[in-house]
Design goal:
The protein is mainly alpha-helical. The chain has 3 helices and no strands. It has one domain. 48% of the residues lie in helices and 0% in strands. The chain is globular.
């Protein structure tokens, strides 16, 4: 069963707020407190390696819904931009665990 999260544009804004709140403090944010994708900052991403709302699986499920329910290029662009940041986190975790060489998108110190 697929959950209906409501209005796609509103969902996207709420997702950005949520993502910005759960990301490490050392990640670069803009003047509105929103995470800057590919922004400055170095540190560890191990806070994401957990179950529940702060876990990566929850993020991917929400991003999938967001992307599949967008109908304009601008809406899809927003969901893909966030996906890029989530993938960077996943790559950093895989690197720390020794599964892959250091990724180009890494924020690791």
């Amino acid at each position: 069963m697929v959950r209906d999260y409501g209005d796609v544009v509103e969902f996207g804004e709420k997702w950005w707020t949520w993502w910005s709140m759960i990301c490490p403090e050392w990640w670069e944010c803009d003047d509105m407190g929103r995470i800057v994708v590919d922004g400055e900052g170095e540190g560890e991403c191990n806070d994401f390696e957990q179950p529940g709302q702060r876990g990566l699986l929850s993020m991917l499920v929400c991003l999938r819904w967001w992307f599949l329910n967008t109908y304009s290029d601008a809406e899809q662009e927003g969901s893909l931009l966030v996906l890029k940041d989530v993938v960077a986190v996943m790559e950093d975790i895989a690197y720390v665990k020794g599964y892959i060489p250091i990724p180009a998108s890494s924020r690791l110190s």
